[in-house]
């Protein structure tokens, strides 16, 4: 703007000098123009930063949401995104109280111990989805109920309000991929099945357990003999329901949690099959590894042998 003003002033001066036959002023070299101070850069619309990370919100959706970037959070939350209209209607209905109206999602961080502690329980409402070069894990938190709030709930599904809410929720589920890509994170996938929870409870919460096989019967740990085998079993694993698969025949290693009354059977036959048994119900899973080169039952067998050796040494 300063450059434009200087240019206009110069043009006006030239125009006045050319009018009315005024005597010409001797020409002099113009003084060098002082450069204008650079204005501080401001984030682009729909671009939010916290902790050195960036969350991008599509231009069409940015006016519809409130994005919070807390300076600190016990849960490690970096971003919380809420639908603005629901939040405003919620404040009208219960002023000064935060009921989470319009909450769409949050993104937080966790270290390895916190992550595995989370994976030891039901993760409803939380999805670990990426990992940074420093080992930090990133969690996508989402509501497990509908947070849409309006003055009246007699909503036409074809109304602009409901269409906007639906579009925002559909966008929210794409954020994991875009956030990882924008920030150079490695996408990670974790399942939250019964085998995941049991193995994480034993590995990270020191849940009492026994291992049973035909060789030596039931064995109990003398210390942390299972640590390296549990790490191997959990590294990169995802458990899938083995729908339609037949239970394998032959020997298996039994991991039992006596206090929980729950157990896992690791079948030594090919296929990486694991059976969960709880309250008389059986569920068959398949352990899947990224490179397809791990056998979870062989790791369980090595774990069992380590317990046997530890018991012999103690005796």
Structural class: alpha+beta
Biggest sheet layout = 7 strands, antiparallel
Mean pLDDT across residues: 86
What is the straight-line distance between the termini?
87 Å
General form: elongated
Total of DSSP H or I helical runs spanning 4+ residues: 8
- What's the quaternary structure here? single chain
- Rounded Rg: 31 Å
Order of strands, widest sheet:
10-9-12-13-14-15-11
Query: Uncertain regions: pLDDT < 50 for 5+ in a row?
Result: 1-29, 34-43
Strand percentage: 15-25%
- SSE order, as H and E? HEEEEHEHEEHHEHEEHEEEEEH
Total beta-strand segments: 15
Share of residues in helices: 25-40%
Describe the structure.
With 315 residues, this protein is an alpha+beta fold. The chain contains eight helices and 15 strands. The strands form three sheets. The chain has a seven-stranded antiparallel β-sheet, with helices on one face. α3 (112-119) packs across α6, α6 (194-204) packs antiparallel against α7 and α7 runs antiparallel to α8 (296-314).
What's a quick, concise take on this entry?
With 315 residues, the chain is α+β, with helices and mostly antiparallel strands. It is 30% helix and 24% strand. The strands form three sheets. It has a seven-stranded antiparallel sheet with strand order 10-9-12-13-14-15-11, covered by helices on one side. Strands 3-4-5-7-6-8 form a six-stranded antiparallel sheet.
């Amino acid at each position: 703007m300063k450059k434009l003003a200087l240019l206009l002033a110069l043009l006006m001066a030239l125009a006045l000098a050319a009018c009315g036959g005024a005597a010409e002023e001797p020409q002099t070299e113009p003084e060098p123009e002082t450069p204008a101070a650079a204005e501080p850069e401001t984030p682009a619309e729909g671009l939010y930063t916290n902790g050195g990370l960036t969350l991008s919100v599509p231009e069409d959706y940015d006016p519809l949401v409130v994005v919070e970037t807390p300076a600190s959070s016990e849960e490690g939350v970096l971003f919380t995104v809420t639908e603005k209209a629901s939040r405003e209607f919620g404040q009208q209905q219960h002023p000064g109280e935060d009921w989470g109206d319009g909450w769409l999602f949050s993104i937080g961080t966790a270290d390895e111990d916190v992550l595995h502690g989370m994976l030891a329980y039901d993760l409803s409402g939380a999805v670990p989805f990426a990992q940074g070069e420093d080992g930090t894990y990133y969690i996508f938190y989402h509501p497990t109920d509908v947070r849409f709030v309006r003055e009246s709930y007699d909503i036409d599904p074809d109304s602009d309000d409901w269409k906007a809410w639906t579009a925002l929720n559909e966008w929210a589920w794409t954020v994991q991929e875009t956030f990882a890509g924008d920030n150079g994170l490695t996408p990670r996938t974790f399942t939250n099945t019964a085998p995941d929870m049991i193995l994480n409870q034993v590995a990270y919460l020191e849940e009492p357990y026994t291992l049973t096989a035909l060789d030596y019967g039931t064995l109990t740990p003398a210390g942390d003999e299972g640590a390296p085998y549990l790490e191997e079993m959990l590294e990169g694993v995802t458990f899938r329901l083995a729908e339609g698969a037949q239970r394998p025949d032959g020997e298996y290693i039994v991991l039992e949690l006596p206090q929980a009354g729950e157990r896992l059977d690791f079948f030594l036959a090919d296929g990486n099959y694991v059976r969960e048994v709880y309250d008389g119900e059986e569920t068959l899973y398949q352990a899947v590894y990224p490179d397809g080169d791990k056998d979870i039952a062989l790791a369980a067998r090595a774990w069992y042998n380590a317990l046997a050796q530890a018991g012999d040494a103690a005796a």
